[in-house]
Amino acid sequence: MSKHMEGTREFIEVVHQGSFTAAANKLGVAKSFVSRHVKALEDRLGLQLMIRTTRGFTLTEAGEVYFNQCRQIFQDLEELEKRIADQNTTPRGPIRVTVAGAFGEDYIAPLVAEFLSDHPEVSVHLEFTNRTLNLIENNIDIAFRTGFVVDGPFIRRKLCAYPLITVASREYLDRNSVPESPQDLSRHNCLVGTLTHWRFDRDDDFQEWRIHGNWRSNNGRALIAAAESGLGIAQVPLFYARESLEQGRLVPVLEPYLRNKVPIWALQPQRVYMPTRVRLLLDYLYRSCHDIAGE
Q: pTM score > 0.70 for this model?
């Protein structure tokens, strides 16, 4: 290592580990070696980077700046080394993925299984959750989310898109009439999901209508079951209702008012390097999902 970098690695590790002893254990050297190199670094810079006490240390303002800048440099170097080494190796290692609902169960899970059959040295932890997890804190490689996604410390790419469809059973419609426009929904029992407003689009005229009913659930399959029982009208992603429509248990209503498709996003944490295994899985999903939701 260049003399200009001597002590830098030790300093960063001390801050990371919280003590000189822990840093020495991590680096596999003596505590005196770490202390001597950090002191030499301060002497070379002509600045005090940390205030040492009997209980530990506190970074000075200069120490905070130096740590943050050098940490990023070392992270970039580590990522570069991984990228170079990864170019000539078989994809291997873990991938952590989060997804929610029927889309994950019916589409993502089977595709991930197919991918693993071709890449047996890769392992995937597929977590189903409706919570919006922090990708970095939870060490997540890919998160699938739908609809509007706020900006954050991640890279997003559209995986596919799905239409919303409004459905009911023939039994319910025979008892209550067929709605001809969104305004008619005020006279119907609407099965409420995660949104209290339903979305329609006719001739590029986007509309949202507040709906009411005696059934509420944040689960798409539960909404389908309630609609099939004749309880009311539901608006769900097409992939929830496809089988029920094909088998005649439900019929579409308000078809002229089908809304524009809702995007499904693949989110990745912002980082310099994407492991080959993660890139290959994403590429496979993109190729497989272009018509997964009715596009």
A: no
Distance CA 59, CA 79 (A): 26
Could you tell me if 190 and 207 are in contact, meaning their C-beta atoms sit under 8 angstroms apart? no
Domain spans, the chain: 3-86, 93-162+262-289, 164-257
> pLDDT for 217-233, tens place per residue?
988 899 999 999 999 99
pLDDT in tens, 15-43: 888 889 898 898 889 989 999 999 998 88
Task: Tell me if the domain spanning 3-86 has CATH number 3.20.20.70.
Answer: no
According to DSSP, the residues that pair with 143 across neighbouring strands are 98, 267
β-strand partners of 267: 143, 156
- H or E element at residue 42: helix 31-45
- The whole-angstrom separation of Cα 12 and Cα 54 is 20
In angstroms, rounded to a whole number, what is the distance separating the alpha carbons of residues 252 and 282? 33
For residues 241 and 165, the answer to whether their CB atoms sit within 8 Å is yes
Could you check whether 93-162+262-289 and 164-257 share the same CATH topology? yes
Q: Which of 83-92, 149-158, 234-243 has the lowest mean pLDDT?
A: 83-92
Provide the greatest CA pair distance for the chain. Answer: 87
Pick the CATH number of 164-257 from 3.40.50.720, 3.90.550.10, 3.40.190.290, 3.30.260.10: 3.40.190.290
Percentage of the chain lying above the pLDDT 90 cut: 33
Residue 273 belongs to what H/E stretch?
none
Cα separation, 76 vs 71, in Å, equals 9
- In the CATH scheme, what is the code of domain 93-162+262-289? 3.40.190.10
